[in-house]
Amino acid sequence: MSWQWLIDGIDAVESWLVLLPLLVQIPLLLVVLLPLAWGTSWVIDRVVEFALRRHTARSEKELADAEVARAERTM
Q1: Count of other CB atoms within 10 angstroms of residue 59
Q2: What is the rounded CA–CA span in Å between residue 46 and residue 1?
Q3: First-to-last CA distance in the chain?
Q4: In this predicted model, what pLDDT tens digit does every residue of 8-36 receive, in sequence order?
Q5: How far is CA 54 from CA 38, 63, 64, 65, 75, in A?
Q6: Contact 25/17 with Cβ under 8 angstroms?
Q7: Where are the alpha helices (DSSP H) in the chain?
């Protein structure tokens, strides 16, 4: 499997971007990179929240409430 097509595509975009005036490059990069950075941070936040869900105060309260509800059902 050859990745040459991807490398050529990236190289073409890079060459096109470098030839643009700086005042066009900056807004274009902001339009692309800001949503990408926001999306990446959102995914990282969700992964960390999922990984640490048992150690958060909210989760401990939910677990305690679930145990109380379970105890009330068995009575």
Answers
A1: 13
A2: 34
A3: 64
A4: 999 999 999 999 999 999 999 999 999 99
A5: 26, 9, 12, 14, 27
A6: yes
A7: 4-19, 22-51, 57-74
